[in-house]
Write a structure and sequence with these properties.
Layout: E1 4-7, E2 9-12, E3 15-22, H1 41-63, H2 69-82, H3 88-98, H4 102-118, H5 123-144, E4 158-162, H6 167-170, E5 178-183, H7 191-199, E6 203-205, E7 219-223, E8 228-231, H8 235-256, E9 272-277, E10 294-298, H9 301-304, H10 312-326, E11 330-334, H11 361-367, H12 369-382, E12 387-392, H13 398-418, E13 428-432, H14 435-439, H15 441-445, E14 450-453, H16 455-462, H17 481-497, E15 500-503, H18 514-519, E16 524-527, H19 532-540, H20 544-554, H21 560-570, H22 583-589
């Protein structure tokens, strides 16, 4: 059979060769959708509650004997979803008000939740609907009388191929025989990706139509580094990837043994390398990845997984656990960075033509102070149990900082009266991601304790690019002279004010850009955990004085192409990276 190649998203690094096992998740059959009499409401209500209780016990059973905390925490989240008002209360209400059977009521609840999530632009947030769908599926199968439990057995070097793989399903898998995961859906922040990373198994997600394009037992290659799947490879391809697999194994062994060492250049410059955290379950892996704390803890998920808003106690429990797990390093909690269009609530913010430039992030928080105060109180209380920092996104004026500081002071006095301990000197920082913030960064630096440059949005707003628009995505360029000048301006302002400055955008996670970031003299960067060992290795092998001189030179160039050309010429002698790909190759392929 002819060799076939498929593209997806590299979700967990590594290379694997093996045979396909198609994991077919059977869909629950809705046999009946019928109206019920008033007398039958109690029976259908009991059936639904019994099914929910069964699913809860099932998730608890899955957890038994598990040692991987990332998976056990996801299973805990599944148990919470079972009682989510949008799923649980809404279904009970439909049974009672519409007088329909439990299966039909649950299906309507799922469809309504899907409708709500479909309006969310953010892929990461939209991905969370798959968790709700899976939990509802377990309940539906019980209601329909279908088997919910099955055990899978595999031969050595099996590669699991599925539409999706839930954390609950991984508890059934004999992971010692599994070489890799491939799914049709998912992102780098999906649970499949998190589980695969925790198990250190290569994974490629988002491979469209893969389950209908291959058969059980077919020999395939999975490249979790480049997001590629090769079906029925030729003997030459097998030989090539067998060699690359061994090279990668030795490479990972080499860089991981030094992952805990500080990121210090040979000439003595230190750059703190911290982790970006999307989901709470990732917190458990922060230190083992070699991170020196969490530089960006995204808090949005807590507000988007339920109809109402999380209360202070719930947020406090999670935040407290995070600072305890990451101690003695710090956790930087970014306050809400979403707009009113993304809330799964009945709160009416009004329809916005361009939400990206509307009521979002700190603007929304200052508009809805009750939500903001609840989050700040939880962060402050958690600061008593470890090192915590507060990071305010989307700041565009000095007035916003003054308002935030006034609210913080009021909350501190409130907590003192109530007897809650907290760090009275908790650092307050802002994200530099709006051009107006760059223009007044000297004034902003006098008011805060640190800057975090959010290159993702800064590039988008500075260059007037919608990076989700394929027709202009090619213009999204971190090496644009304007972006480099903005970074320089922000760093200099921070240094003059004596505060710390870092980058938390994707630019910092690109190995090819590390010498440039070093040359700016930043204090810290925060990146995806998967790249931390590599980033630290590059820093330890690169002289700061060389990169500083290089940055001074590239800032003189007026075009991106001139900058790229100069970098390729200058970095010839710097360390090799992944799979012997030199910096020049990375620069050529990155963001083009």
């Amino acid at each position: 059979m002819q060799e076939r190649r498929f593209r997806g998203i590299g979700a967990s690094p590594g290379i694997a060769l093996g045979h396909v096992y198609l994991l077919q998740r059977s869909q629950p059959r809705i046999i009946y959708q019928f109206l019920i009499d008033k007398e039958q409401i109690k029976k259908e209500t009991s059936r639904f509650k019994e099914a929910v209780n069964f699913a809860r016990k099932e998730f608890l059973r899955f957890k038994q004997g598990l040692s991987i905390k990332e998976i056990t925490h996801i299973l805990d989240a599944y148990s919470v979803i079972l009682k989510d008002p949008l799923l649980y209360k809404a279904t009970l209400k439909r049974i009672k008000d519409e007088r329909i059977n439990a299966e039909w009521a649950l299906l309507k609840s799922i469809n309504e939740i899907e409708r709500i999530f479909s309006k969310i632009d953010d892929d990461y947030l939209r991905q969370r609907f798959e968790d709700i769908r899976y939990v509802a599926e377990r309940v539906m199968k019980y209601l329909s009388g279908e088997p919910t439990d099955s055990r899978y057995t595999y031969t050595h070097d099996t590669i699991i191929v599925a539409y999706d793989i839930s954390p609950a399903e991984t508890t059934h898998l004999q992971t010692k025989n599994i070489a890799g995961f491939i799914t049709e859906i998912g992102t780098r922040t999906s649970h499949t990706a998190i589980v695969a990373q925790a198990l250190k198994i290569p994974a490629v997600v988002g491979v469209k139509a893969i389950t209908s394009s291959i058969k059980d037992g077919e020999f395939i290659i999975i490249d979790g580094l480049n997001g590629e799947v090769i079906v029925s490879p030729t003997s030459a391809t097998v030989e090539e990837y067998t060699r690359r697999k061994e090279e990668y194994r030795l490479y990972r062994k080499e860089i991981e043994k030094d992952a805990y060492l500080p990121a210090r250049t040979p000439d003595g410059f230190c750059l703190n390398v911290m982790a970006n955290v999307e989901l709470f379950e990732e917190v458990y892996s922060v230190l083992s990845a070699g991170a020196e704390g969490i530089g960006l803890f995204r808090t949005e998920f807590f507000y988007l997984q339920q109809k109402g808003f999380p209360d202070e106690e719930r947020l406090f429990r999670y935040f407290k656990k995070a600072v305890e797990l990451v101690s003695p390093y710090s956790v930087t909690f970014r306050t809400l960075d979403i707009g009113g269009d993304k809330f799964i609530s009945k709160l009416d913010f009004g329809k916005e033509i361009n939400p990206a430039l509307g009521l979002r992030a700190i603007r929304l928080c200052l508009n809805q102070k009750t939500i903001f105060r609840t989050q700040l109180r939880a962060i402050l209380r958690a600061s008593a149990y470890g090192k915590a920092r507060i990071l305010i996104p989307f700041v565009s004026s000095l007035e916003e900082i003054h308002k935030v500081k006034a609210i913080l002071q009021d909350i501190k006095e409130e907590l003192k009266r109530e007897g809650h301990p907290f760090d009275e000197r908790i650092p307050l920082g802002i994200m530099i991601e709006v051009p107006s913030a760059v223009s007044i960064c000297d004034f902003l630096a006098r008011e805060v304790d640190f800057f975090s440059i959010g290159t993702n949005d800064l590039i988008q707003y500075a260059l007037a690019i919608d990076r989700t628009n394929e027709q202009v995505a090619y213009l999204y360029e971190p090496l644009h002279p304007a972006i480099l000048q903005m970074i320089k301006t922000s760093v200099k302002a921070a240094k003059r004010a004596g505060i710390k400055v870092g980058i938390c955008g994707e630019m910092a996670a690109e190995p090819a850009y590390i010498p440039i970031i070093l040359g700016f003299g930043l204090d810290e960067i925060s990146v995806n955990m998967q790249v931390i060992p590599l980033i630290k290795r590059i820093i330890r092998e690169t002289n700061f004085r060389d990169t500083k001189w290089m940055v001074d030179e590239i800032l003189k160039f007026p075009t991106t192409e001139q900058i790229k050309s100069y970098i390729k010429q200058t970095l010839q002698d710097l360390p090799q990276t992944l799979s012997n790909i030199r910096y020049e190759s990375l620069i050529t392929s990155s963001h083009e």
